[in-house]
Every structure is written in C-alpha cells, then in structure tokens.
Amino acid sequence: MKYEAVTIxxxxxxxxxxxxxxxxxxxxxxxxxxxTKKIVIEYAQQINYRPNPIALSLKEKRSRSIGIIVxxxxxxxxxxxxxxxxxxxxxxxxxxxxxxxxxxxxREIINLQYLASRSIDGLxxxxxxxxxNLDHLINLHKRGFPIVFFDRVVEDLATHKVGVDNxxxxxxxxxxxxxxxxxxxxxxxxxxxxxxxxxxxxxxxQALSDHDLPFDANQxxxxxxxxxxxxxxxxxxxxxxxxxxxxxxAVIASADKLTTNCLRYxxxxxxxxxxxxxxxxxxxxxxxxxxxxxxxxxxxPAFEIGxxxxxxxxxxxxxxxxxxxxxKIILQPQMIIRESSxxxxx
Amino acid sequence: MKYEAVTIxxxxxxxxxxxxxxxxxxxxxxxxxxxTKKIVIEYAQQINYRPNPIALSLKEKRSRSIGIIVxxxxxxxxxxxxxxxxxxxxxxxxxxxxxxxxxxxxREIINLQYLASRSIDGLxxxxxxxxxNLDHLINLHKRGFPIVFFDRVVEDLATHKVGVDNxxxxxxxxxxxxxxxxxxxxxxxxxxxxxxxxxxxxxxxQALSDHDLPFDANQxxxxxxxxxxxxxxxxxxxxxxxxxxxxxxAVIASADKLTTNCLRYxxxxxxxxxxxxxxxxxxxxxxxxxxxxxxxxxxxPAFEIGxxxxxxxxxxxxxxxxxxxxxKIILQPQMIIRESSxxxxx
DNA sequence: TTGTACGCGTTATCAC
DNA sequence: GTGATAACGCGTACAA
Lengths: 346, 346
Description:
DNA-binding, elongated, alpha/beta, 6-stranded mixed β-sheet, 434 Repressor (Amino-terminal Domain), homodimer, 12 strands
C-alpha cells in the first residue's frame, strides 16, 4: 500500500540481487537456486511483501475484478444472489464491484460506464426495470466484453443467461389460488420491459386458460419501477380493486417489492388476507413466515443463481478463444404455501 | 478495456502527435494550442477514449477505491448504510468494494488482507461480532492506513468513528416498556465483544435504575453471532422465559437479526405479542409496520451513518498531512412506537 | 544461475 | 507549442 509499500525492488536492494531474480524466486521459478529462493522468500515474508495488484493488472491487462449491476442490494433476492456470486468469485481470486441502478435506466448506463472505465474483466447484470434500449450493453458485447445476465435477462443479446422458470412460478401460484376457489385473480406485475414480467404473465395466463377461466387484461397492472415506489403499487391496486367491474378475490404480486407493498396497501385499507383478498407473492424475504397471516410465496434460488452466473462469467473470461456458444440456464422456483393464499370468504 | 483498449498512444499515432501532447491536450493544459486541443479532444471522443484507471493508479499510487467490511449486506441496516456510502463515494470519484465477514473473525481478517492487497485507499468497517482481538486493524492503522469505524466501533483505536447513541436507544426502549406497565424486562443482546452491545445494556440498566426497578443479570442473554443463527436466539429465549425464576413480560432485542428471530421464536411457541410478551427491537427493516402486531422499533439512521463515515474517510485520504485529530460522531436513533410494545396482560 | 532491458498506459520533467 | 524520456511495479525474453 502506498503509505509504506514494499516492492520487489526493496527486496532486491536489501538482498543485493536484481529485481528479476527476486521476482523469479517469489514465483518459484525453476531457474533459481534453492538457496536464493529460500533467502528471498523468507525475507519477503519477514517484511510482509505483497505484490502490487495494480502493477499486475497493468501488465496482464486484466484486473481480476468483475462488476455486478443490480437494482438494489437492499432487495433480498439480490443480496442473496450477491452472496452466491461472492462465494465463488473470492475462491477464484476475483474481486467484486457492486453498483446499483435503483431501477433507473440512466443510472444503469452511468454505472456501466463507470465499471467499464474501472477495467473490470466481466459483468454480471440484472437490468433495471426501465431498461428497454440495450445499446449500452450491445456496444460492450460486440467488442467481446464478457457479460452474463442473471434473473432479469434480455433476449436480444447472445450471452450466457441464468434465471428461474418464471412461467412455472406464476403458473403454480395461479393454480394454487384457483384450487382454493378463486376465480377472479389479478396480477400486480413488474415492468413491461422485462422478460421476466412477460414470462410471469404468460404463466398466469396459461393457468387461467387451463382451468377454463377467462383472461381479462384489466386484471393485470404493470409497475414500471417494480414496486420500488409505494405509490405505483397503490395506484395499481386501486385500479384493480375499485375501478374494475370484475373485482378480484386474489392477487399475485410478481416481485419482492411488489409483494410487500401490496401487503402494506391491504393493511392500510383494513383488508383481511386471505378472507377479503388472498395473495401469493414472488419473494425472497426471509421473514415472510412471520407476517400475519403468513405469506405464501414463490421463492427463487437466488444464491444458486448467483453462483451459476459467476461460474459462467469466469469461464468465459478465462477462455482463451472467444466464446461462441452461450448457455441459458433455468433454475426452478419453489412455491411455499402458507396462509395468505387461502380460500375466499364464503 | 483489454479486448480493444484505446490508449493515448493510439490517438498520438493516428494524429501524428506525441503521447505527451495528447495527454496534455486531453487534460486541457495551457501549453497546448487551441487547435491541437480541439483536434485531439474531438478524435478522442469519436473513438470513445477512456483513460486507463489502472495505469493512473500505478502512477499516482492510489486506486480511488475504498473497501467496506460489514457482517452481511442482507441486513437492512447495512444495506442502507452502504447506500449512504455509495451516494457520496461515487460523487467524489471513488469506487467501493464490499466484503462480508458473516460475523466471523477469521473471515474478517481474510477480507481485510484481500482488500489491503487490492490497494484500496481506505477502509470503512463495522467489525464482526466475534472480533475481540484488533491486531489486524491496528497493524494497518499504525502504518497510517485510513480506517473509519461505523456502527460497531472499537474504542482502542484512534480513528474516526461514526455510530448512534446506543445508550439512548436502549434507554428509551426500556422506558417505554416500563411506562406500559412492564416491570420485568429482559434483553436479548448481541455479542459481548461489541461496544454497541455494552452501550445498549448500559442504557437498559440505567432506565431500570431510574425507575427504581431492580437489575438482574439473569435477564440478559448475549448472542455471540448477533442473531445470525436462529438457535442462539432460541436458546437465549428458552433461558429467559423458562429457566428463570423471574419470567419477563417484555423483551428488548438489541439488533436487527435478534429482533426477527425473537419474533420467529414467539410465533413458534404461540406466544401472543404484546399480551403474552411485549417487545421492542432495534431494527432497520422497512416492513416492521406490516408485521402483526406491528413492531415497535428503535431505528438507526443507517443511510446518514454511511454518508458521514465515507465523508470522514475521504477527508482523511485526501488530507496531505497525517490526520492526528479524530472525530467521533454520534447520531440519534429514532423510536417508533407501534403495537408490540403494548401493555401486559392484566 | 543471474542480470539487463523492455513494455503495460499515463503524466511530469526537461529539452528544443 | 511540442516532443522525448523517465518513472510507477511487475514479469519475462534475451543476454551473459
């Protein structure tokens, strides 16, 4: 470190050797005599020598750090995914730099430029809910920069992708509600721009259809900010519950923040769950069991998603030849049935 | 970036200038003629030139990145604090590298070595709950490395420190419970090693004393892992509630994870809050209002703590002279009274 | 077996 | 006003 950095030069001077000898000794090169090696290594240890990673990065043209862009680390799903990413990255000697888009397209671009300018070797990204235009990512990708999408993948880019079976998650949730007697099920969905939203809507749609229930587009409300703002969820629910000639008895919330904000709304309106309105939410919160009523959720294997994503990324980074075949890995979500998805008031 | 990095050299070659001229033109040096400047700057923009931060770091002996070590980013308090840190760091051109100790002393040391070897310019740390020995930090600090403690500060090191008034938080919580008729109040505390634990215990103690209530050491249980493990909270509560000849009617949980795990325990035992057992918890979760009963909490200004801490750190980093006077900044916690702290069963 | 010289990208210094 | 050179710390091809 700058305040008192010990360099190879210092060692060389102290031991009356050349820097290259020291360098080679430390790297255990076969050309160096055992005695010299011993002396050098012991001395290095003694003065606590650490190679300067910046010099190495400059030389090797790689920083051994990777960037992560997510909307919010304060979101359980993402903090769990980041844990998964770190668990592998550190083992493999990679450093992780996290940036948050806060669901803003603009900030996503700023973050991306920032990370790119910090010489990261690769990028893990879950796009912001505002992101429709992908030029910023396409530009990097075209120049051969390794990018792996996780959770919120985009289809128009040939890269590795890791996500969950959103279709199935929504299908299962819808089916569960139907089984419990609900015929009128609304969905509070995330941003229309996101493919995960489309998949979840599709699963919901299909489940209705498979149970001979009509699909009514008015039963879906999209929230551009993915529930980050309470107001958008409030508006969505107002419309669904009070400006709708087809008042739902159950709601599916298709993302973490949507789920909690739906609950917040129901509470503010004194609506009892599930008797007044039943619900299942996509959520990775670890205290959904403590809510009252306890919340039925679709839970995503966030940690594993992070692990798989980082493994693909590192594989691509360390690949000598350009990657041409990209994988799309789909993990299964888990449905946890608790009280909130129960039967409607008879 | 390595795949196709544009350097100053490329520009120089393309424009038939020397690298130094290009460098100066880009930095808007007064020695360069306006025409040359214009040509260089325009061309640089056109080919999307970005200075290589690694080369700069090597030269300037600083990386413009700072390290953060916290126990868990999945902890609301810390994710909010990190948001505060980032909000300032990015503005000032600093990059942030986050590492998690998961409350392990060993991992804290590994993280610290890792960050130090990555040439960070400074460190923000909230020590792990296992951390008793501070040698790893003292070593760095002695060599003049900038360190700022936040939230979990340690007293034995002369550095900047930012935290909340833990004493007052616990004092207020205890007083509130006493006002509601509770005379037998237990505390589920964090690690005994942490000064924040000691302060919170002291506040609790003083409040009892100020209301002429006896202090009973058996009413306090310490959790080394700060509630990260459910089992330790379970054990603590078993002892307090069932192996105690002084069964409490109210509990104060002195950290985020302790709070949620107390609730989990009460739920599993079918204990009604607050009628069977009242509680107030330290918590920065943003859905404590949704719990049933809604949770009374002591909330810390996490975002602000992060902001203040990073400002102190950057000030110290950018200070030409070694810092000799260190600040200790104490922010005020906020008590939010909801249902869980209510009166006991009559 | 060990040492010298160079290059990674940038800027400061000195020369013209 | 512009160019050549050295330096930051490291690894390595080449020389001895």
